[in-house]
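Progress against Task 2.4 (sequence-to-structure conversion) is shown through the following example record, which the project officer requested during the mid-term review.
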Amino acid sequence: MSETRGVTLEIPPDQFRALGYRLVDQIAEHLASLRDKPVTAAEPAVVVRRALNAERCLPEHGGDPAELLNLAAELLFEHSLFNGHPRFLGYITSSAAPIGMLGELLAAAVNPNCGSWTLSPMGTEIEAQTVRWIAELVGFGSGAGGLLVSGGNMANFVGLLTARAAQAAWDVRTAGIHPTGAKLLMYGSAEMHTWIQKGADLFGFGTDAIRWIPVDEHQRMKVPELLRQIQLDRDRGDIPFCVVGTAGSVSTGAVDPLEEIGSLCRAQGLWFHVDGAYGGLAANVPGAPADLRALASADSVAVDPHKWLYAPLEAGCVLVRDPSRLRSAFAYHPAYYHFQDDVLNFVDYGPQNSRSCRALKVWLALQHVGRRGALQMIADDMALSRQLHQMVAQHPRLEALTQSLSITTFRYVPDDLRRRLGTPEVEDYLNRVNQDLLTRLEQSGEAFLSKAMIAGRFALRACIVNFRTTREDLEAVTALCARLGAVADEACRTDQPIRR
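Structure tokens generated for the chain above:
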């Protein structure tokens, strides 16, 4: 204990070393046994809260660090959903790279505040290099600016606010968004992620400022409809300012016709932002949709290293073609800041002042596999998704629906209902069967998928952003879906009979 303090959080070096070695051993054991564990224990909330003793008060006195760390490891390893499991295919959350885990520990040890260069000289330079490497990886150009943020929502928010400052014909940061009474309007497809609603709400545009453009049968934005809506809005006296192209929709991995959208934006004088949180990192991967390469012409792009670069959460990234646009959107210089002007201060490039060293884990993983390795890992995920689509297409009780990037959607269809597919009675019944199937699947612990609605059809959705997943895992998932689908069919047939 410190001679000048009654209580301290300091841990002596030998004890810290022993604690660290033990924790790393526990983590290594967890990773080695991950494949043999359930994806999730699928416990009800009351069980998880009981394990935590959630109702207890804050202890009056401190505890032993070794006991506390052992308790924390036990709680997390026994009562979590493991997105690193090879059969976790539920959401666009990747397995965390082990080198990234160690990078998080190292970053926390130094604890740099990457808001200013003075407070984080090496952390700042590592982030700047990481941003440049990501820009090179997606073909955005090394002259771009950007920064690491918490995830896709925040990366898209930064792009939206940068567009607002760049496109408004007045000092929007001072006067606000409606000084003339005209609305600033933004455009995206009907399949666009809900971050746009949060952004419109948070930043005072209002969700009525969003124009949802219809999509075609492949869930891609209809560009002629986009142009028509822009012209209608201008005729009413409103101010279109930003079009958002989706590079990998959440439901199906659909990629908008980005080249056409970019051309339209340039012709109309609009900011072109690409939400590539999921698919943007595949832009230069062989076999990826050709439209992804058009994100190179965008004004700003959001991508998520904690998706397809396998970084531990949190790690999003926003790229902006003209870095000065970021400063114009975010920089302020109060008297209590005394930062150098001849270096990079990320506080001037985004909404946060205090910023963790998110880049280190991404920087390490990119070097661990290199550029070719990073692209190959994405390509492998996409190839496995195509294989899954083929498996379900060939299965007598499964129906393949869509496949794009690394997302495959499908559903269970009983043999005796196939001849009546498309009829309202059967489609309603299949929606109930597959909803029940998904619940059984997730509660089984054997695999974890999510859902998508495809033209009114309830679909199982498998998204592969997982360097541990193999073809054998997909074969097991396919068989599991067929087996549990039969159970769900029997249950639904009993509850609400259907003419067979």
